[in-house]
């Protein structure tokens, strides 16, 4: 299982323009084991443990997201991932790399992403559908208007899922 997850982690890291591998490590007690994620953020850089203090907070967040996405993209896992402000600690380059990765995985994983601003949602052009909750006017009840943004053809469920819809 660890070998399969390590292979998937390495693949996910490559899409995100990072090098990574997982290693099985001994735990604190006999018979206990854990997994260490070793990552190099740049080509030619030595892979370092996720616990190494050389990684910035944003790099640690990226490693955690990559590990999550590697786990989610494995067969037999849940196919929906809900993430709130998933890019909060990432720089612009890593946001773009993560978007490429999520787009590459969209056949296996459905993403429900919450972003705090419309500017961040513009980077999600690969998404089929986006809901934009607009600010409510002062004094108005808590039901702000919602804008639905749809990628061309994304709303045509018959074309996207012909066999599933024919069976129902």
Give the key terms:
168 residues; alpha+beta; 3-stranded antiparallel sheet; two-stranded parallel ribbon; 6 helices
Rg from Cα: 19 Å
User: What is the number of helices?
Assistant: 6
Biggest sheet: strands side by side, in what order? Answer: 1-2-3
Question: How many β-strand runs?
Answer: 7
Mean of all residue-level pLDDT scores: 79
Low-confidence stretches: none
How far apart are the first and last residues' alpha carbons, in Å?
36 Å
Helix content: 25-40%
| Major sheet description | 3 strands, antiparallel
Helix vs. strand class: alpha+beta
Would you mind describing this structure in some detail?
The protein has 168 residues and is an alpha+beta fold. Helix content is 34%, strand content 23%. It has helices at 2-15, 57-72, 92-104, 118-121, 157-160, 162-167; strands spanning 19-26, 33-40, 48-49, 80-84, 110-114, 129-133, 146-150. The strands form three sheets. Strands 1-2-3 form a three-stranded antiparallel β-sheet, covered by helices on one side. A two-stranded parallel sheet has the order 4-5. It is globular and about 60 Å long. It starts with a helix and ends with a helix. 15% of the residues are buried. The model has no long low-confidence stretch (mean pLDDT 79).
Topology:
Elements: H1 2-15, E1 19-26, E2 33-40, E3 48-49, H2 57-72, E4 80-84, H3 92-104, E5 110-114, H4 118-121, E6 129-133, E7 146-150, H5 157-160, H6 162-167
Parallel strand pairs: 4-5
Antiparallel strand pairs: 1-2, 2-3, 6-7
Helix pairs in contact: 1-2
Short structural summary:
By secondary structure, this protein is α+β, with helices and mostly antiparallel strands. Helices cover 34% and strands 23% of the residues. The mean pLDDT is 79.
